[in-house]
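Structure tokens please, single chain.
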Amino acid sequence: MAQGKFGERLIKLRCAICKEINYYTRKNKKLVERKIELKKYCKKCRKHQIHKEIKK
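Here you go.
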């Protein structure tokens, strides 16, 4: 898995409605301990939905 010098790792973001994996992003695991949720555009739902972090 890709890891930067500050403990950053790539994580997957999955749509909470249709369960489609649409985005990859990074988070600093030393500073952010909880799972992240972002409101992003889902191509399958064709609207903005909550995307949650999932395991690799």
